[in-house]
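Quick one, T. Sequence first:
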Amino acid sequence: MSKIATKHIDDDAVTYAKMQNVVADERLLGRVSGANGVVEELTKAQVLTMINVEDGAQVNVDTDLSIGTVTPTNVDVNSSTGDNVTLPEANTDDAGLLGADKWDEIVANTSAKHPAVTIGTANGLSLSTQALSLAAASTSTTGALTDTDWDTFNGKSNLETEAFSAGSVLSGSDKVSLLQDGVGYYNPITKDSSVYLSDNTTDLETWRNGVTETEMGYLDGVTSNIQAQFSSIGSYIKFTRTSTQSISSSSTTSVEWQSSSSVGGASFASINASDNIEFDEDGIYMCILNIDMEEDTTGRRYAYVGEMRQRQNAGNAAATIFCCTDVVAATDGDPLYTATYQNSGSSLNLSNNTICKVIKLS
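Structure tokens:
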């Protein structure tokens, strides 16, 4: 008997009973062994793989998450319908949890670098319910200057520039009555005006020259002593470098001085064994530091002298030159602090144009 071609079978003519029996329970007909082949009986595992569903998966069921085991570095998250996961601690490469040890480090760093801020109540300050107040000053209390007080002080005459009219009294109790006509002082100045003259003349120049130690309480030679004080201000000592000095990045470095020269015979400061400037006399000094640093466009530059600091941004390719000044009260043997700082990212040189001038004021 020959085969019956498909075209000779009517539609719906073959019943289930006429098909081959399924050889095992729980099978689906299909094919996983490649296209264009005989129908195969597929197992549960084959079907789940084919439709990409995990064995035991549930449909339309709520998933409950809960915290499992917690350690200083990990947290376990449990799932009611799937696999549990562990959340790891963050590191330099991957995101994650903030571990207990890293938390301790943050707390320690915050406490060390950001101490508690307190607000004093001196000089009229007061703090109440987070409101900081400054009371007005009075004869017995330090505080703020009121607008009325400001008007009073601002309205005072400037004795250096004020033009007084004839008859103006410049000092109280009628001791001296100096009169001005815009050019010189009026005559006469006599003993009757409470100006004590050795010869009772009316000439101002004669009066000035005639002042004696007995009459005015001045020491002999006051004119020459005053002149000597003004002359001393014109003298100073200049400290320099004769070669470059390397300044490391992000490190405050003392300037090492190599040479000094005196102008006007000054001898009140010198370079000590540590290459620092040292005062050799008690006094009040003006100290002027001029920093000349190698060119670089990155970061900031600082100069330090005494208690003062000057900042300069590196804004162009030219050498960074800037100045810092302070007035210092020193005793014999005290050092003068002179230093500089830069954060360009690499070492930069101070040039031999870096200088410090020290002037004795008194």
